[in-house]
Amino acid sequence: MRILFIGDVVGQSGCNAITAHLPEMIADWRIDLVVVNGENAAGGFGITEAIYHELIAAGADAVTLGNHSWDKKEALTFIERAPRLVRPLNYIPGAPGRGSALVEAKNGQRALVINALGRLFMMDPVNDPFGLLDEEISACPLRKDADAIVVDFHCEASSEKLVAGYFCDGRVSLVAGTHTHTPTADHRILPGGTAYITDAGMTGDYESVIGIKKEEMLRRLTTGIPSGRFEAADGTATICGIAVETDDRTGLALRVSPVRMGGILEQIIPQFWTGT
Amino acid sequence: MRILFIGDVVGQSGCNAITAHLPEMIADWRIDLVVVNGENAAGGFGITEAIYHELIAAGADAVTLGNHSWDKKEALTFIERAPRLVRPLNYIPGAPGRGSALVEAKNGQRALVINALGRLFMMDPVNDPFGLLDEEISACPLRKDADAIVVDFHCEASSEKLVAGYFCDGRVSLVAGTHTHTPTADHRILPGGTAYITDAGMTGDYESVIGIKKEEMLRRLTTGIPSGRFEAADGTATICGIAVETDDRTGLALRVSPVRMGGILEQIIPQFWTGT
Amino acid sequence: MRILFIGDVVGQSGCNAITAHLPEMIADWRIDLVVVNGENAAGGFGITEAIYHELIAAGADAVTLGNHSWDKKEALTFIERAPRLVRPLNYIPGAPGRGSALVEAKNGQRALVINALGRLFMMDPVNDPFGLLDEEISACPLRKDADAIVVDFHCEASSEKLVAGYFCDGRVSLVAGTHTHTPTADHRILPGGTAYITDAGMTGDYESVIGIKKEEMLRRLTTGIPSGRFEAADGTATICGIAVETDDRTGLALRVSPVRMGGILEQIIPQFWTGT
Amino acid sequence: MRILFIGDVVGQSGCNAITAHLPEMIADWRIDLVVVNGENAAGGFGITEAIYHELIAAGADAVTLGNHSWDKKEALTFIERAPRLVRPLNYIPGAPGRGSALVEAKNGQRALVINALGRLFMMDPVNDPFGLLDEEISACPLRKDADAIVVDFHCEASSEKLVAGYFCDGRVSLVAGTHTHTPTADHRILPGGTAYITDAGMTGDYESVIGIKKEEMLRRLTTGIPSGRFEAADGTATICGIAVETDDRTGLALRVSPVRMGGILEQIIPQFWTGT
Ligand SMILES: [Fe+2]
Ligand SMILES: [Fe+2]
Ligand SMILES: [Fe+2]
Ligand SMILES: [Fe+2]
Ligand SMILES: [Fe+2]
Ligand SMILES: [Fe+2]
Ligand SMILES: [Fe+2]
Ligand SMILES: [Fe+2]
User: Where is Fe cation 2 bound in this sequence (chains A, B, C, D) (predicted)?
Assistant: First the structure.
């Protein structure tokens, strides 16, 4: 299966890039499954129902969230009628929505998409993600009940993301970190066969501070005094993510490559899908 | 000037890689200035005098530190006789050592090397790094008193590192983030001419959790129960860093490239130095 | 029922005070139930089996823990043969020991003792305490299955402790906060009948920084440089806690008073037990 | 000199209590100096110019702030024309206002009032408070240039407040902690003669969660889902603070007593001022 995971889409800039380019990426690379982190899609903070549908219409098979899940209050309600919207599985039981979704991929195969929040340096107290990850994966095992399993592990600390990677290694197709809004260059296939990247990076305007206009961020951190609102930067986005090709017999990763298209970052696309 | 900045060297594995490969990298690429972050060089935690000299002997012109500066107690004293060892400049005044050093590069030019600690999610309370960075840069301006200025900004949050980058943009040659032990793929030249990367990555064994053997890290985070010590992983290291070529007339960056050599990460070397 | 809850016993100084005075307090005041927080009893960090038995021998009917539960490794094993030792109930499932214990009080009545860790500003990530508190209290309700219920809510933030108080109000006899090692003066009976105090205070030498010798604490915080170990202060302890008299028909609080005996703090004992 | 320090005044409830009772407390107890923490006076978040004048009119000789200093944007400007309004001294240099003020007490004596923010568990990164405290106290020493010195040390951790107390011991009249909105019962005179309390407590409605209506606080912490705004509770306030009588020859403390008047907390007033 060909999987494309796209990191935190930030604001209008990020949404525009997805709408403009995702359909042709899917067609050109014959992608089977697209997972998009949408926690910052609505102006940098949260997601709306309209934007959720925009992402799905552009080709996302599932949309994941993170610590900004509920920034837009409507998400608390529309998530119930948005079966492909996945919020962190380790919220306090009773939270709206779901922490995982078994979706049908474009090729008809079954993909389990899981979202989890890490805890180190994160402000929102959540429950242990690892036990719940284990439950989810055990309840819908790779090959038996899912042809691919994608885990979006959303947190600050690289150590915790690596632990998530090794914890799931051999049992899921991909563990992709999100939240720092900065792509890492440590993509690889872990010893057990799971593709891994510490952070997929954001899909937004990089001439900014993590997608937010840099002027207020600079003032805030260098003077300690708030002087305005945080607004999403509006320059051209770099679409950032990770491409994984799995072995259909095992559901594990055969190849992994970063994706960085458009905007100011150095560009890269998966050579193994474009090589002829 | 040709500058090579190498991220957090972790344990014996990292030191071995530096000793084995740095001399020929310097020779092959005709590097003028090497800055190495050494805060984890001694078994993962701190630095010793012997290791400092080992790094200098291998070709480092300056060694920077971070939140682990004083993990080995001897650093509190030997730093006074280690003129090329630079600890964070925003420690409480009176701390041993120095927060910046003007060193002579291999080509005889003057390079100012500065180390600063960020504050978001960092456990050690330190003073405002930005005002002090401004003071240092103003006291020894690029071109006038320094032919290159390298800032090692050591912290957790990508946002704070980006703020450091933009804050210094146009006034220093390079702002290289450290501390997360994970290389980022957002290297670029900022609008004002300063080379930037959110994290240079660690120089250590990546088959680990940020350079530490993964078994205990996994147990600790997935059970909540400490059951052993953290030890540096001992597989082959990937040397991770960033290469910058500056314009001698301005001291600003002309070219920037990540460096990742050895170990399990995808390899990359600066094409602009190897192209003939 | 007459309940005495004693806050974090710190080091030898705290243990000595308990051994020397608790038996006569129990006798003089005809106390039915004594709960002691012992997370710092072993030299300031954790608890040993010997000290656990010492506290029980002095009259404790249950010993609670906190973020320092496992500082002494032996606690991970001896807790299984220490039925009156209660660790936080919101550890990751599988942790040794128990998060609550139904103990027989000195008058033969049944008392449920629960320990929970809060999450704000606490370094150890733990699961949501409130849902688990609700489960425990529902499974062993006041009056029906327990004649008294005592909750030791261990955390940093006063806000979270107050939330715990109101959350349990009317369903437990006492919510006593611990962890800050500083007695608060906001003891009261909440509207639903539950006795409450934000922090019971430590039982240790107050001529110190939260029970630790003040010299190293001062150096560490004012210079930022570690220069020695943290050791428990060894002056005379103040026994700090809270006394509650419950209504036998309801299990709820009729009277509440702080207890502060010995050492340098202003002294106070429950007038309602000494009035004759 | 007779000094009354009043902890965080929260919202209309707190302001009403000050307006209604402070004038007669000053008269009855012949108080010479009143310092009031006003960081939450405006609806729980920050301070306005009108409220500042209300507190001064009621008898405050100085008003201190904390982490909520700039919650009301107008504070950034009106502080410049509010000579008795004191914000934390360890903000990044260039912040509006002042970190200390030498005010004339009601008896004509000179009192230095200092405000400082601690750093442990505080979200706003600020500079080292201890070095700056030392500078302030050295520049205006007790007896020589000030007849009394009052330090409002505003932070979360009891350990850091105790360090502030011992750090200033013998050089100031009073170190009063603020911020937790919970009065502590560890008031005392430190060995060097400085009066100390870990937290003076809030002046607000205690039938709440730290002065905020408890319903939303409970929902937020027990479900993890924001569902409304935080609003100041509006029941009758308890005026909480600490009373100190200093020796005019030394400026140090002779007597210290908590003050808790009105509302639901156990009441206490300084016996040494009411003993006739
Ligand atoms: Fe995000
Ligand atoms: Fe996030
Ligand atoms: Fe490091
Ligand atoms: Fe570090
Ligand atoms: Fe404790
Ligand atoms: Fe504790
Ligand atoms: Fe406050
Ligand atoms: Fe505050």
Answer: 39, 67, 154, 179
